[in-house]
Specification:
The structure holds two protein chains of two kinds.
Chain A: E1 5-11, E2 14-20, H1 26-33, E3 52-55, E4 58-61, E5 74-76, H2 89-96, H3 106-119, H4 125-131, H5 143-156
Parallel strand pairs in A: 1-5
Antiparallel strand pairs in A: 1-2, 3-4, 3-5
Helix pairs in contact in A: 2-5
Chain B: E1 7-9, H1 14-24, E2 28-31, H2 37-42, E3 50-53, E4 63-65, E5 71-74, H3 79-83, H4 86-91, H5 93-98, H6 105-110, H7 113-119, H8 125-132, E6 136-141, E7 144-149, H9 150-153, E8 154-156, E9 159-160, E10 167-173, E11 180-187, E12 197-205, E13 211-219, E14 226-227, H10 229-235, H11 242-254, H12 267-290
Parallel strand pairs in B: 1-3, 2-3
Antiparallel strand pairs in B: 4-5, 5-10, 6-7, 6-10, 8-9, 11-12, 12-13, 13-14
Helix pairs in contact in B: 10-11, 11-12
Classes of the chains: A alpha+beta, B alpha+beta.
């Protein structure tokens, strides 16, 4: 079966229907079809973590999945996290701790950390470093990212 | 677009997937979690004409115990599910301990047990672990099915006994023998990266505290999973003290392997790592076996 495939999916709470080529990666679908360019594309072979999004609440690499496979599923990207006016507490913590410099890796790191902090509300440093080990950052040396996660875990804990 | 064009099928039953495999054979690739296949397609190292997506077949995803105390896994069971399953912890603690060491959290969300086995990467943890746990793989085709022991399934680098019309549908592990100890240790440049060397061990102690069974599986030291058989043999009948453990680690590093050098590590360094990790893994495994009363 060649040609285009109908997909019906939810991204950041909004329903979308599109016809896609099966070889279109989910990362490219989000950026080029839906104009959600917050999801960054780095290595495109599953090493850098920049394209991490949530699929039904689980962090995944959107460059290692085809858009057609997201049919019927729920995706969350960094655009679903906060707005410029009202940052999500996790984003605010990154600002506070200088957890980013160039910002290229940041969306993927935020989307990795969101489910992590939900299941580990009070992580220690080793757990934090373990959690972000699938995300490469070439600016910060990670220390300020770890600091940001600590701040976020305090803000987010009830 | 990164990958080359392909025809896409998303069967919803095993029978439908088998009929597609029978029809397209060598032209088709089965898509499991896609965490190895899709990178290869993005690089165009793999250009299957037909992609058969297994992600919509619920019958391929399960974890259940069998009556004899063994374990059954559906091939499409995701790593993240295996990682947190209490039955895995109880019946195959070596697998339970292995899961968090496989790739990154994002990859474990998608990657599947059967996908890792079928891909047969010599540096994959589950490949070596399946061999030393005497895993059995059920391969189904439209004309029948066969159970293949892990030891015979892996032929070489990315090469298995799977025929083009066959699908790995289920993995079985026998129950643990009495007084089992286990461990998996590996060294990688970065956490979750491919291991330069990894060592998985299972040992068993008898009533007199002597080793009656030992299995040592090595990763990243050959074209497939490598068993350190001579080292394991040297442990039989021995008390789990430091001398025989050291001797076995030495045998594993010298007689049981013929590692190659690459940009990641030299052959000499790999031998060194095999020696150190085998010793440490055996120490931990024997400690665990000893803590179980006879």
């Amino acid at each position: 079966m060649n040609g285009l495939y109908e997909v019906d999916l939810t991204v950041n709470g909004k329903n979308y229907q599109r016809a896609v080529d099966p070889r279109l990666l989910l990362s490219d679908f989000l950026r080029h079809e839906l104009n959600l360019t917050g999801t960054h594309v780095g290595c495109e072979h599953g090493v850098c973590g920049a394209c991490t999004v949530l699929l039904d609440g689980q962090p995944i690499r959107s460059c290692l999945m085809f858009a057609v496979q997201a049919n019927g599923h729920e995706i969350m990207t960094v655009e679903g996290l906060g707005t410029q006016e009202k940052l999500h507490p996790l984003q605010a913590a990154f600002v506070e701790a200088h957890g980013l410099q160039c910002g290229f890796c940041t969306p993927g790191i935020l989307m990795t950390l969101l489910p992590f902090l939900e299941s580990n509300p009070d992580p220690d440093e080793a757990e934090i470093r373990h959690a972000i080990s699938g995300n490469l950052c070439r600016c910060t040396g990670y220390q300020h990212i770890v600091d940001a996660v600590k701040i976020a875990s305090e803000k987010l804990s009830p | 677009m990164k990958p080359a064009p392909f025809d896409y099928y998303a069967p919803t039953s095993i029978e439908e997937a088998l009929s597609l495999l029978a029809r397209y054979g060598y032209d088709a690739k089965a898509l499991a979690g896609g965490q190895s296949l899709i990178p290869m397609m993005n690089f165009r190292l793999a250009q299957p004409a037909v992609l058969i997506d297994l992600n919509n077949i619920p019958d391929l995803s399960f974890i259940r115990g069998d009556e004899g105390g063994g374990l059954r896994l559906g091939a499409m069971t995701r790593h993240a599910q295996v990682e947190h399953d209490p039955l895995i912890a109880e019946r195959t603690p070596l697998i339970f301990e292995t899961m968090p060491k496989i790739a990154t959290p994002q990859i474990r969300s998608r990657g599947t047990f059967g996908g890792s086995i079928s891909h047969a990467d010599p540096s994959a943890e589950l490949v070596a672990v399946s061999v030393i746990l005497d895993g059995l793989f059920r391969l189904r085709s439209q004309t029948g099915h066969r159970w293949v022991p892990a030891k015979e399934f892996f032929i070489g680098m990315f090469t298995t006994q799977l025929e083009p019309d066959e699908l790995l549908t289920e993995i079985a592990f026998p129950p643990m023998q009495p007084r089992s100890g286990w461990a998996l240790m590996e060294i990688a440049r970065r956490p979750h990266d491919f291991a330069l060397v990894g060592v998985a061990v299972v040992v068993n102690l008898d009533d007199e505290n002597r080793c009656y069974n030992a299995r040592i599986g090595l990763l990243s030291v050959g074209d497939g999973p490598v068993e350190a058989n001579r080292a394991a043999e040297a442990l039989i009948g021995q008390a789990p003290t430091s001398e025989p453990i050291k001797a076995a680690a030495e045998i594993a590093a010298t007689e049981d392997i013929d590692p190659s050098s690459d940009i990641h590590a030299s052959a000499g360094y790999r031998r060194h790592l095999v020696k150190v990790l085998t010793r440490r893994a055996l120490e931990l495994a024997f400690e665990r076996a000893s803590s179980i009363p006879s």
